[in-house]
Inverse folding.
């Protein structure tokens, strides 16, 4: 079975699963209510899928929670490793510094 694509994907899937179980629903029922294929839904719960915004919102509506519940307190530390990560503020500051150089 594939490993979760990132800690964020695993945490997201865990939170979706917890809400589904809280309501006593099956994966098939939630997938049907959200207009999804049950296989794709299962991938989300396992942290293997990477849902788009519309899917996140649909799942939140079906499960009766604010979409923010699924991503609360996630940060760049939950993302897969990358060579370098810059915030927009860091990027703008560096661009200005480079423009000011002769």
């Amino acid at each position: 079975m594939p490993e979760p694509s990132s800690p964020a994907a695993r945490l997201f899937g865990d939170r979706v699963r917890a809400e589904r179980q809280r309501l006593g629903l099956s994966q098939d029922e939630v997938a049907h209510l959200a207009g999804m294929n049950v296989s794709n839904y299962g991938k989300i719960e396992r942290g293997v899928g990477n849902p788009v915004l519309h899917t996140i919102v649909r799942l939140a509506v079906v499960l009766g929670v604010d979409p923010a519940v699924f991503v609360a307190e996630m940060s760049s530390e939950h993302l897969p490793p990358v060579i370098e990560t810059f915030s927009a503020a860091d990027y703008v500051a560096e661009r200005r510094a480079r423009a000011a150089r002769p």
Notes: Residues 12 and 72 are 9 Å apart (CA to CA). The chain has a mean pLDDT of 93.
